[in-house]
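Q: Sequence in, structure out?
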Amino acid sequence: MSEAINANEAFVGTVEPEGADRLDESKLAEWMSANVIGFEGPLHLTKFKGGQSNPTYKVDAKSGNYVLRRKPFGPLLPSAHAVDREYKVQNALNKAGFPAARQYGLCTDESVVGSWFYIMDMVDGQTIWDGAMPGAAPEDRRQTYFAMIDTLAQLHNTDVEAAGLADYGKPGNYFGRQVDRWTKQYKLSETEHMPDMERLIEWLPATLPEQTRTSVVHGDYRIDNMIWAKDEPKVLAVLDWELSTLGDPLGDFSYVAMAYVTENGGRSGVQDLDRKALGIPELDEVVERYCAATGRSSLPDMNWLFAYNFFRLAGILQGIKKRVLDGTASSAHAKAQSDRVQPLIDRAVEFAEKAGM
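A: Exactly. Output:
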C-alpha cells in the first residue's frame, strides 16, 4: 500500500471518540453557550484522525461547525501543548488580516472537558496532503506553490507590535534557543544513546547563523498545514501553530524548503518528483520569490538550516516515541512516526557535514 493512501487513511476525516478521548458534551455545550458568540446547541463531537500533538475535534452544532483543540491528558513535557499560545497567535493574526482561522474562545478551566482547550472556526476548504498534487494541472501546482510562499512572506512581513504579539516570544537568538529547546526536549524523552545526535547537539550551537530579522515564526509551515480554497490556488487558513513563536523567519523558509531535499512518499516532499513536468517551481525560483516579497537580496547557506531542521524533527519525533512507549501518544499513526528518529538524525548529519561539521 502506498504512503499516499496511508496519509489519506491516517489523517482524513473524523472518528467517534473512544475511551479517554470522549469529552463531556453537555458541559462543553454549557461553556460554549456562555462564551461563544452566536453558538446554539445541541452539539456532537467527533475527533479528527490527523495530528500528533493536540487532540482536535469537530464540533457539529445547530449554529454551525467549529473546531476544538485541547491539551492531551496525562504527563506532558514542559512548554509543550500550549493551546493558549495557539489561540493567542491565531486570534491576533486573524485580526491583522492574515489567513488564520477566526477564534471564538479559550477555556483554561480543566473542569469543563478535563484539559485546556480553545474553539475556532471550521474553515471550509481542502487539505493538500501530497506535494505532488495528483490530478492538478501544472499551472495550478505552480500557482499553489507560489501562494504558499507568498502567504509565508505575508506572515513574516506582519508587524508584530501592531498585531499585539511583541510579547509572544524572545526576539533574538532564535536558532540558539531552538537548538537548546529541542536538545532539552530530546534529553527529557531520550530512550537510547544515539552518538550522531550527540555530535549535532555539540556542533549546532557552536555554528549558529547570525539573525538579522525577527517575525512571527510558524514553526511547522508546509503545504499540508493549511486549508486551501477548493477552486483556486489560495490559502484560506494556516493551521497547527503549536510550535510558533517570535524568531528568525529563515526558520520557516528553510523548513518549507525542506520539501526539496525530502522524497515525496505521498506527503509534502518533492525531491524525487519530475518537478518540471508537474509545474512545481524549483527551489531557486521559490527563494527568489520569497526574497522579492520580503525585501532580501539573498539567503544564507541552506545546508546548516537543513541540518538544524532535520535535527529539530528528530527531537520532535523522539518526543512522540517516548509518548508511544509511555502510552500517551494521541494518534495511531504515532508508532510509525516514532520509527523515523534515526533516519532524520542521519539526514541532519549529511547536511551538517556539507556545512562543515
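The radius of gyration is 20 Å.
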